[in-house]
Design a protein that fits this description.
alpha+beta, Calcium-transporting ATPase, cytoplasmic transduction domain A, 2 domains, 7-stranded antiparallel sheet, 7 strands, disordered N terminus, ATPase_P-type_domA
Length: 319
């Protein structure tokens, strides 16, 4: 009885620890989502403060539309320092490799092993047809489940690759007082970007001046409706995603026009951080998967031990 009580107490403690671990994981996820915007402060800044923060952009505080922008030399130096304005593509993997990877699940390996043993048993004695049926059913279950997980992983990879399609190939900037069209990859922090209706925002841009500017950023903010943007600073308690004065990388201009200063490029943009989290973050294992893996290991080890014992007994008895 004392042994049972000790075992039951250990189970309760393990369950409590598991719940605590899950709660900590949820808290970390919430904190990581807030960290996406934690380095941004420009949405709280006034125009005069932005002029001080980006002196080389030569912003005209009285009339931002007359900003001279970066010089060609400064832009080249920033590009060499920060790298190109682009998102790192996900690792390429063939459909065959992706599909075969699904069979590495410990539970599926156990079912395949059981199906193999059933098939061997049927071959040794073809009169017992049930062994053949068991092998076929088990293999079908594994195949169907692997196909489902393969399709799900393929969807995730498609979404990640879709992030790069949100970026325009060209953008309009002001450099040395002249509006020019450049490759988006050559855009740098401090560039003055011109946003027009029908174009995509090439980086994270703090709006300096706008007229009826409406942007669609559903892939980033989740807002289905276009958002009206402005150039005014917001209070300290307002989050970046609610500020409506920072146009995110990949947003589409529905209406109006505006001008702004680039504050983040490439992987440092909100879109880049989301893509990076999607491709690098390890898949969280649920409590159910942990229990299943534990059960599979127990069955596997038990089967090996029992098989070894029966084999040794058979060898002894036959002698």
């Amino acid at each position: 009885m004392a042994g049972f009580a000790r075992w039951f107490a250990q189970k309760i403690l393990r369950r409590r620890d598991a719940v605590a671990t899950e709660m900590n994981t949820l808290k970390r996820n919430e904190q990581s989502s807030r960290c996406l915007s934690s380095t941004f402060k420009e949405h709280h800044m006034t125009l005069d403060q932005l002029v001080i923060l980006y002196p080389n952009s030569r912003i005209n505080p009285s009339n931002p539309k007359e900003a001279d922008g970066l010089s060609a030399q400064t832009a080249a130096e920033y590009l060499a320092r920060d790298g190109p304005n682009m998102l790192k593509p996900p690792k390429e993997i063939s459909n065959v490799q992706l599909f075969l990877r699904q069979f590495l699940n410990l539970f599926w390996i156990l079912l395949i092993g059981a199906a193999f043993l059933s098939l061997v048993t049927y071959i040794l004695d073809t009169t017992i047809v049930i062994n053949l049926y068991c092998a076929i059913v088990l293999l079908l279950i594994v195949l169907v489940m692997c196909i489902i997980t393969f399709l799900e992983e393929k969807k995730v990879l498609k979404v990640v690759r879709g992030f790069t399609n949100l970026l325009p190939t060209k953008c309009s900037v002001i450099r040395d007082g002249t509006q020019v069209i450049i490759d988006t990859e050559k855009l740098v922090v401090g560039d003055i970007v011109v946003i027009r209706s029908g174009s995509r925002v090439p980086a994270d841009v703090r709006i300096l001046h706008c007229s009826g500017l409406k942007l669609e950023a559903s892939s980033i903010t989740g807002e289905a409706e276009p958002i009206d943007f402005h150039s005014e600073p917001v209070a300290d308690h307002i989050d970046l995603f609610d500020a409506a004065n920072v146009a995110f990388n990949g947003s589409f201009c529905i209406d109006g026009d505006g001008i702004g200063v680039v504050i983040r490029t490439g992987e440092k943009t909100i879109l880049g951080q989301i893509a990076s989290l999607t491709t690098t973050q390890k898949t969280k294992i649920s409590s159910l998967e942990v229990e299943i893996n534990r059960f599979v290991r127990f069955v596997f080890i038990s089967a090996l031990v029992m098989g070894a014992v029966i084999f040794l007994l058979g060898c002894v008895l036959t002698k």
